[in-house]
Amino acid sequence: MKKWMIAALAACSAMSLHAETLSITVNQVSADGVGDKLGTVSVEQTPYGLVFRPSLQGLQPGIHGFHIHTNPSCDAAPKEGKPSAAEAAGGHWDPNNTGKHGEPWGDGHLGDLPALYVTNDGKAEQPVLAPRLKNLDEIKGHALMLHAGGDNHADHPMPLGGGGARVACGVIK
Q1: What is the domain range of residue 134?
Q2: Of 17, 74, 141, 167, which residue is the least packed, with the fewest Cβ within 10 Å?
Q3: Who's near 60: CB < 8 A, 6+ residues apart?
Q4: Measured in Å, how far apart are the chain's first and last C-alpha atoms?
């Protein structure tokens, strides 16, 4: 009986210590608009920063740029006179107006997240830590974006890390 009570107390303690999380539905995006659901990304608030835990499938294998964008929309919008995937999301979230792309632990856009790795079977399941983001409330009302290419976390040789086209997006509610 005593062991059972200790186990029950431990379980209650663990539940009360459970970190706050939110879930973001992520869809494929194209110049035609928002497409099929690819999965979700859960975001957990920890003492070390926000942890993004993807559960995505149907993606191209490799490294992909992963960012928070300014606006809470994944809709296509015009760019240089042509429809462009998830352009309504705006640019990288930069509330401090740094005007520069950088490492997730650096002094650039707060929307700069570690790159997301997609396995050969098209799945992204490896969590990433955003150490400068501390509170879930600060990212609500923006969009989570996955780009076609990798991200070198610099503006050279290509602007915004060279991630290229927007391929998946989710509104952070």
Answers
A1: 19-172
A2: 17
A3: 118, 122, 148, 167
A4: 44
Say what the pTM is. 0.85
Q: What is the pLDDT of residues 7-39, one digit of tens each?
A: 433 443 343 356 789 999 999 999 999 999 999
Whether residue 97 is contained in a domain is answered as: yes
110-145 b/e with 16+ CB inside 10 Å = b? bbbbbbbbbeeeebbeeebbbebbeebeebeebbbb
Q: Based on the number of CB atoms within 10 Å of its own CB, is 173 exposed (0-12), middle (13-18) or buried (19 or more)? A: exposed
Report if residue 108 sits inside a domain. yes
For residue 121, give the CATH number of its domain: 2.60.40.200
Structure tokens at 171: 């509104």
Residue 8 domain-assigned? Answer: no
